[in-house]
């Protein structure tokens, strides 16, 4: 059997599906897929695409890396037996540590199956957030982002049909596209699924404070973008205690 790279997509209802890929000596790519089980029945061969590219496409759709597995011609999946006594051991003191994966690209995917009323609400929110982003960008003296996702998502949200969009956010696009998608993810409109993943396949949460890795990618932090993040609904407004107390009548005797 040949080693495959296995990915898993976890659904909101607790179920999951698996997808595996390997590169062949003739330059083709073989993939297998199916519900998470000991066998992946689906199989196909493709030419003209690199394994790393197709893996990134899957990561952008929310698939997370599981590990290397063996899959036979019938699709039966077997994880390598790491407990075998014949496997070479590496002393703990000299074990080689894998270098951390540096984030330099974000992969996003939006699957919209919302009804007409929700699409209207989503479109209004997207345009309002975009206005907030532009105002903040101008106040900071930043150049306009040439990210193509702005218009693609606005146009898709104006229709009455389901849509499926995906793409990438690179360093040169700036932090604003990511914050826009984060606002959409955080809003959690019914029927609208937003997935954002890092280069190493980690799913980005909707909690801004937890995403220091992504903030660092764009050379910023929570406090720097706090006013904008509050407008987008990503952070709760910070209470000014001094101002609040100034409005209170002194009832002390």
Concise overview:
This protein is 29% helix and 24% strand. The protein is built from seven helices and nine strands; from the N terminus they run ββββαβββααβαβααα.
Write the layout of secondary structure elements.
Layout: E1 2-10, E2 16-23, E3 29-35, E4 42-46, H1 51-60, E5 64-71, E6 77-78, E7 105-112, H2 116-140, H3 149-157, E8 163-170, H4 176-187, E9 192-197, H5 212-217, H6 226-231, H7 241-246
Helix content: 25-40%
Strand line-up in the sheet with most strands: 4-3-2-1-5-6
The secondary-structure class comes to: alpha+beta
Strand element count:
9
Order of helices and strands: EEEEHEEEHHEHEHHH
Mass-distribution shape: elongated
Give the termini distance in whole angstroms.
84 Å
């Amino acid at each position: 059997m040949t080693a495959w790279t296995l990915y898993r997509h976890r659904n909101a209802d607790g179920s999951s599906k698996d997808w595996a890929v390997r590169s062949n000596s003739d330059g083709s790519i073989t993939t297998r897929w199916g519900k998470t089980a000991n066998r992946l029945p689906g199989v196909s061969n493709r030419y003209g695409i690199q394994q790393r590219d197709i893996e990134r496409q899957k990561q952008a759709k929310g698939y997370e890396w599981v590990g290397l597995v063996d899959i036979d011609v019938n699709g039966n999946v077997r994880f390598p037996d790491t407990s075998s006594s014949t496997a070479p051991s590496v002393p703990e003191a000299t074990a080689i540590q894998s270098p951390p994966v540096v984030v330099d690209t974000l992969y996003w995917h939006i699957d919209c199956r919302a009804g007409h009323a929700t699409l209207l609400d989503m479109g209004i929110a997207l345009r309002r957030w975009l206005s907030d982003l532009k105002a903040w960008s101008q106040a900071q003296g930043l150049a306009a982002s040439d990210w193509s996702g702005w218009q693609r998502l606005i146009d898709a949200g104006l229709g009455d049909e389901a849509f499926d969009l995906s793409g990438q956010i690179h360093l040169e696009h700036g932090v604003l596209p990511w914050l826009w998608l984060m606002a959409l993810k955080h809003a959690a409109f019914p029927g609208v699924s937003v997935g954002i993943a890092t280069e190493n396949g980690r799913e980005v949460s909707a909690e801004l404070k937890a995403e220091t890795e992504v903030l660092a990618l764009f050379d910023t932090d929570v406090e720097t973008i706090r006013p904008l993040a509050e407008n987008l609904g990503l952070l709760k407004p910070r209470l000014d205690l001094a101002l609040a107390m100034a409005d209170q009548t002194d009832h002390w005797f």
